[in-house]
Queue: 4 jobs
Job 1
Amino acid sequence: MIRRKRPYVAGTLATALLGSVFALATPAYAQDATQERLVNADAEPQNWLIPFQNYSSHRYSRLDEVNRDTVGGLRVAFTVSLEDNSRGNVTNDNQSSPLVDNGVMWVEAHSGMLYRLDISSGDAGHIVWKADAGIDPEEHPRTRGFAMFEDSLVQNLTDGRVLRVDRDTGEIVWDLQIARVDGPGHSGVNLQEEGFRSNPLVAEGVIQVGNSRGDAGTRGWVAGLDFETGEELWRFYTVPGPGEFGHETWADEAGVAWRTGGAAIWTGWSYDPVQSAFIGGTAQPVPMFDPEYRPGDNLFSNSALSLDVHTGELNWFFQYTANESWDYDEQGVHMLINAPFGDSDRQMVTHFGRNGYYYQLDRTNGEFLTATQYVESITWTEGIDEKTGQPIEYDPSLTLQTYIPETRWARADADPKSVCPTVLGGTRWQPPSYNPDRMVAFVGSQDGCSGPNLILPSLSLEDGGIDEQGRWADGVPGWATPSIGLLAAVDVTTGEVINQINQEFSNRSGVLSTSGGLVFTALYDGSVRAYDDETLEELWRFNTGIGIKAPIISFEIDGKQYLAVIAGAPTGNVPDGRESAAGSVLYVFTL
């Protein structure tokens, strides 16, 4: 374990000046983010205290100054450049939400750099301190956010470290290597490939983190850490090892597939204070396109999980697609919703699946309630069984599922095959939103088909490792076929899609809904857009010129509503052939 306690300051503010600069630049006072405040985050619409707005991941703003009638007057209030975090790496990949507490904003840029900004004036973001976590430039810069709890910020980083940072001073309280450390139950394979990309979640004094590098050929896991000390309290392996429940669902003759089985965690989870449970999803099994390497249902890949906050024990699970082979991982956001469904009020988990279906489950036991197609075309299955929630073709007696053979990639294929939806989904990390007043859930994602693909077989190494082709599908043409954007709305009382539109560019930002009757989103071309939440008619847009993969938030200063988003996706061609620009900029909008 690595423990450090030192000033956590980089850039233009010297350590010796930190105290005086803080006193001069930050008149706003931000009280501790206690458990009580976080549980009741909905009561503070002026702030944004949790990465997905509240513990249920609703991403709903109760502010309504910006509404259908006024949204046309939105303008840029101010911007803050986050480019100095790049440290020579031009591949910006910002996917995180800022956090806001009473005129103070914290932002995490793509290489783990933290900023504290004084935004109390409403017309500028004054940098109070900049903090560099010291990630090796060779590490992939991607991050999906950080958490706030009590007097601290909590980061989990791509290099496997977890940090607790004093949110007022920027001082590190502790810095621990959690991933890439051998321990009890570890498979011992590809340990150095582990790391974090999802935002952490803190509740009841426990920090929830999860290994995000399943695609790199690692064994997935979720861990709970003590907030005060960083000590690991528990670890739940999402790929069961020998003697653990579910291990028999990795049925290869060599008995090694589980060692590198994936089932990663790379999107933030939700927290249910009633059940004292962390609830979220897991990614696909690995190798992703070669089910013959790993016969069996491959638990707990492609599953929703409910884990006890203090012990990590499994409360329940629901597997969406057993022995899956299209990269339809279901690690995306799982929203917690209380609403009427059927003949009674239900405590539900809702999930827009990467496999093209929208699901509702009972939150108390994982019981399947309903599933509805929300993308235009699905060709990997004929549908979802209304009683079991499993694909219609699923046969529990088989260790190798067939599904629809014409779209099921197999080692014996002589000709390429296509499949819908695209392997990008559906939706991946893009967070959805839930309007509790209308009882409508929204998703921003993409739509399309992938292929044709010709999948080459994976080669097993002696220790259970997988050759590079099997891990990454290198050289497979068409696996990331460009797709168009999709915006859809679902009535959670019925589980039915009530409206949907296509957008000309892929949506990798997700959505924010508001009590002003609006849905905000951003597209890969760099445009920020607002839609009428009933008709999905576009009412406003602003183009930053920089690709966007980060979600939008909303907050209030002195009674005035603001919206903010980080523009900074990797450069590349958008579908109409234009090149998106490089950059890393925080945009803040107001009327």
Job 2
Amino acid sequence: MTRPLGAQISHMLKDRGVDVIFGIPGVHNQEMYRGIEEAGITHVLARHEQGAGFMADGYARATGRFGVCYLITGPGLLNALTPLGQAYSDNVSVLAICSCLDNTVRRKGQLHQMKDQEAAAAAVCDWSETADDAATAYHLVDRALRAFWYGGDRRPKAIHVPIEVLKSHAGPVGRGRTGESRQLPDPTNVMYLRTRLRKARKPLLILGGGAVDLALPWGDRDGTPVADLMARLNCASFCTFAGRGILPRDGDLHFGPYLTRASSADVVGQADLVIAIGTQLAEVDLWREDLGHRHDAMIRVDTSDEVLNTQNGCAFNIKVDARSFVRALLDGWDGAALMNDWDEGEVHRARARWRAEVDAEFPNVLPVMDALRAAMPADAMIYSDMTQFAYAAKECWDMPRAGHWHHPSGFGTLGYALPAAIGGAVARQGAPTACIIGDYGFQYTVAELGTAVELGLPLPIILWDNGKLGAIEDSMIAAQIAPNSVIQRNPDFLALAKAYGAEAVEPATLDDIAPALEAAFKTRGPTVIRLTPALSA
């Protein structure tokens, strides 16, 4: 049957596996809302388009698939550029479908008019295209989903549809393909790496967020790819912040997520072979220009040409996804596990030294973090914000599961954690999801508390309240700048949460954190748990 195109797009998305859309309806995009309920899709009403974009991001990270947001012409899209930029930076699959004006050349002064909406979105998306007819709209949706599903560029896409085109009647679109694809590495590359491994005396593995699939069961054999890989290589390892949980946190040769510690460069420099899998080795992974490795010792494994051609020099690139790479490397492996010259004692001493550095850099954080970590369910998924608590925790909170801590790396926006955690909680109905956010970042997107209350999400919001922009203050002092505008007047956060209809609590001691968290996971609706440095002072 024919329907207005706006309705057909919702039916098309449902047919291709979309169950949830995040957004805010308006006069310009109301045609996109005509078919949502009829298609059987749940719509989550955000309080701001920025929140809708972050929710779609959080949903995508929680599911490992993609998130969808519906946006309105002009300011609605612009409000969502920050979350789209964050998704681009972190390689997260978000599809933004936006209404747009039919004619901006002949007609001026229209509601929501801007110079070039398509170009604005292009600045923070993999691509941004306008559909002037139904066939083009269908093509663009499938083009985006094919990239998300079949190993293309997973970064966000923006589709703009003129208002009159959304109103026009269109026929249904056929069913789309679903599934996943894997790339097969060149056998010559695999043989080359095996040869290098057998000759290496100090091989080092670095795992990033692009390698989280290595922690999932094979499906056709016992164990996991990462367990089989480490049993064969018997090498030392690091992980990036996004790669936490892939390797067992108590591994004898695992240095952990401490690549940002300056002296980790000396450790990396000892390696005669470095294999980096699924990591950009970007500034936010290292906080220095160079990893510290010998360039002739580096082999990089990734699916992204952009990553493989960054300035972090290497001897050899292998373009392939992590699971396919490990399968090819291990299939037909002959011989026992490799031997190496790494010292387990050195690894343990380095981890202890680096934790002490973090403790000195972020005083009063680690005791609170340890209490919170001990109380957190093993299967909890955590969304954190740009706050000192998260900066310390990313280094010292060893995750028991891969892909269960999400942080706004790269773009580094404040206000990410609350709406992203809402998106994650929507995706993980019945599974524990938590938000860790600072007092300043919380106020960026605090209105989304209304959405969490409306949905009845049992979402603990761990609010680290130090009453200032602590990281900025420290940076100014380090640069010999008198701290300026780093201390703000905060509201009564507990009263504010209750005004939205949320629960609110402030533990008086470290021992009070566990029962507060347990109660929050059992409450119908969000709970703000205010923590301060005074807890461990």
Job 3
Amino acid sequence: MPGGGLDCRPMRWSQTYVPTLREDPADADAVSHRLLVRAGFIRQLMAGHYMLLPLAVRVRAKIMDVIRQEMDRIGGRECLLPAMHPAEVWRRSGRWEAMGDELFRVRDRKGADIALGMTHEEIVTTLALELRSYRDLPQVWYQFQTKFRDEPRPRSGLIRVREFTMKDSYSFDLDAAGLDRAFDLHQLAYTRSFERLGVPAIPVRASSGQMGGSASVEFACPSEAGEDRVVRCRACGYAANVEKATSALPAATDGPGPPAPERFPTPGVRTIEDLASAHQAPADRQVKTLVYVLDGRPTLVLLRGDHSLVDQKLFDATGAAEARPARPTEIRDALGASAGSLGAVGVAHLPVVADEALRGRRDLFTGANLDDVHLRGVDVDRDIRVGRWADLREVAAGEPCPVCGEPLEALRAIEVGHIFKLGSRYAEALGLSVLGPDGQPVTPVMGSYGIGVERAMAAIVECHHDAAGIVWPVAVAPFVTDVVALDPGDPGVAEAVEAVTGRLEAAGTDVLVDDRDERPGVKFRDAELIGFPFRVTVGARDLAAGRVELVRRDTGERQAVPVDAVADRVLSLAGPAAGRG
């Protein structure tokens, strides 16, 4: 149960540190950031680095307990790996260079290169080198470990940071069937974990990115604070990150066009919109030409004029280790014109990657690689040497679902978890093999699976709050019950507080006693801001009638309850998540 491993003896407000604020922090750009600061859970040290205060530590521990229970349930075994890694193992996998500036790099006093771990695929594989036989498999190892990522733009409090706790796990199996089973078990464990945490996470298809491998699923929590963009179909359940999403575009109806492209002057035309409005060239009949530098070589990337490029789709399609948009000077050197007049017609000296939506299209418009000149009547198959076709475009809301044809919905989301089928990439790079049933060496296949703990905390707040503050689900609340003493100095009130907290403690629920010498209004506002699921108010007037007031945070419902019945009432309302289990 949440709270397992925590000391459930009643804590007094005067004995802990809960620095609540009356005003919102000026730099908060997400609800969770604003409320976690105001309610005394976190404080920023520097951009992307947060101090977790006592209440946050309790929530974090409960989140970890839930995840730990679900990981143990699928056969995971907890370990703890170092946060500092020798550069050599990252070089052997190729990720020392591929991870770029997001990987923190330091040197020790002897000049050795060290990585601050942003993930642990390489390191767990070195541990797996001790596996000798197929009889040692399968294995699922997990940990809760601090990760470091040099994010260029930390934002939104705990949602995008540079130092955070991750539950990362790794599976080792003899074959693809074993990996499929480990992957499915992790998806089940993650689904159950997020349900228990109160996070409405949607499993969506996703890109594997720098992790590599054959497949991945992201768990996306719908939220305006999220940085991910997800599309889904409510009719059939299809869901994907925009980095992976597709749609069923209707077939284009093009005329035959002229026998060859025709030049025409376009002075001052610099954008898709300029060409559409000034020259009767609808955006969906234009070929947009972008120039990217992939692994050091300029490459033309073609899309329909009204479509946007998803960079990750380009990287996945080409397998480029390094990719970036070309600079203006590089564009002019490659094509002899500036952006706004670019095209791929007749280009033979550069690679061309085109989006599938252009396949077979005719009678289109594009740049002529001369400033202020464009072409009409372009037939893609006839006039452009496409070296690679790929799905490159960003799917838009309302487009037909690729599975059932119903309109797709687009939403912003927080990535709270991600699971990957890695295959043999890391095992091969680091020389991992075991003896198979026939006595011959076999390279195990791996999976990698992660949940951001503090990000999950932020997602819970994004999903559970109101105008007064946080509304914690019982399973992860820092304390399930806040017992408010209206007059702590009154002997009768003090005695009743002890009786109430004693009964709650005996029932296994965790309690915070607000024994501060503050006005009732201050105590009630703080209780709502912090988000305790239940508040028990003990005052002399109610005690005279043998009762206390019980308030539910989620509904605001108030009821008078006999002192000796309050613990049973809290447990009946909260369910088993209120106890220690």
Job 4
Amino acid sequence: MTATRELQPTLSSDDRPSAPVTVSGGRRGPGRLTAVLGVVVVWVVVWFFTRGSQTLALDGLAKTAFHDRITELRGDLIASRDTNAFMQVANVIGDLCATTVTWLQGLLVEAAFPRPVPEIGWLGVVALAAWIAFAIASWKMSALAAASLLLCGYLGYWEDSIDLLIITMVSIGICLVIGIPFAVWMGSSKVVTAVVTPVLDVLQTMPSFIYLLPIVLFVGIGAPAAVVATVLYALPPVIRIAANGIRTVSPTTIEATDSIGQTAWQRLSKVRLPMAKKTIIVGINQTTMAAFSMAIIAAFVDGPGLGQPVLRGLTTQQVGVAFVAGVCIVILAIMLDRLTTAASVRAEQATRSGANPVTRRIALVAGGVVALVLVFVSRTYLWAAEFPESTIGPTIARNVQAFSTTMTDDFSTVTTGIKDNFTVVVLNPLQALLADSPWWLAGAALLALAVIIGGRSAGVVTLACLAVIYGSGLWNDAMVTLTMTLVGTAIVMMLAIVLGVWMAWSHTADAVVRPVLDAGQTLPPFVYLIPALALFEPTRFTAIVAAVIYAAPIAIKLVVDGIRQVAPTSVEAATAAGSNTRQLITKVQLPMAKSSIVLAANQGLLYVLSMAVIGALVGGGGLGYDAVLGFSQGEFYGKGLAAGAAIVAIGIMLDRVTRGAVRAGSRNPSASLVVRTHSIPGLGSR
């Protein structure tokens, strides 16, 4: 690796230490590594004599009495819809969501009886989208919005794309109505923050997939389930980020407003909210991307949108169909991300550039008039109401399918060899240790490791989570899912450290790799399954590959940030003491960035877990398979819900253990880093 040394600040000769300096990255906790190895050795020895016994394995279609009882309770709740007050409230919420989505579909995308076409045709929809993008951002974003919608239309997915945007926008609207007041409340009250934060922790730790099963019970399938699940999933980011922005408004500014006699309402509306505006819009950006991601996954419960063709393509292995729909998802994801990001900086840019607000108002009015004219045209002429048919999408789908088949045929020896060797050498041994151990042995070993790595509090949480997993009746499947998660995370962290060090030392590497990471973080998880399936066919390995691609960007970025935060004086002192590049990296930067690396592992674990569950669509098995079974067949609802509870328990357990390790690293007196908080939609407390 060629190191770009100019990234490290230099000291003048007067600033250099006059005597040789030995730089240490800090010692590990006393005996921690030895204790971990000791637990693993004892575990392997006992496993050797007890493997295959008391594993609590359950066949794919088998159920326990507990699962049947949950299914019966579901039936009882459904039967009490007209008498149970809670179910009546859920019915009202579901009906409101369904009515809103149906009305918007008739307005924008479906025939509005007695009209054979929507109230506003495709031309009017594109014009309105372009005008809104201009109003909240810029003319460049206006062009991006129009081009994105037209591309989706010509790829053959106009209706699915608009349906997805409808679900997303309705959900975002509800998130803002609920989230902004909560953020204001949290930003003004430590008590409210203490009460609400644990709830947000749980919501953000749960993989997106798991929201769907309980939601279906209360509001049914289709648009209502899609909207409610999306709201629950996307709500935490805007609350957290907006509350942080309100809370961090300068105290001196608040004191100045108090001195002139402003009321609490004036302080909020004229000082706190305006000064936190940029942060609030960043929160809206995060919530928008989370909502978009969840609205796609809602295809599992018959939610309308682009998730439907992707789901069909994955389940029938029609890679071409899934690919074209996936391209549309990528286009819309990039559009929403760029649009909300541009909106967060527009006001600041306008102020710095000295732009004339009158000119902008005139442009907005003129653009609004043009948009209304095009809306009228789309209501009047059939060509502007129905999106023209195109052969572009089907042609691409056929070519991609043919390419996928060719790749599978021509490179099957290579891909199969990679898959089989990895499975035999890495995946199977770890799964044998976790899933083939007696449940009590695996549980005791996991509890001991949790205490050693994360501390006593993490041990208490781990004990509770293991009890939930045991009670779910799906212990063996949970160990399979845990195996995939740990293996995927190990690969993610290897990539994160290698690429993170490279990017931290080289401006060129950072400039090349970072845009790829940014794009990767924008894409919803469904998209990653498509290339993995095309290359490796449905297996556990395929699910792990998709999970690694999904989780790697955030872990790499955290490692880069951690390395760059290492004090330059420490690097210079080590250089003055004669350390070479390898020693600087291994003896100084990586040890002193330990907290950030452990935080990256925390995020990697949660992202991989989320994707490993969705990976059931490409042969991942484990708890993901049980959850999908619960979606697809009503008699397995109880098993699917129990699988969801076990997945949440795994997520909370891994989150608390790695967070405990982060805290332990930050208490190390030799570490000079401060653990930074990151707001990432959908997973873990930042």
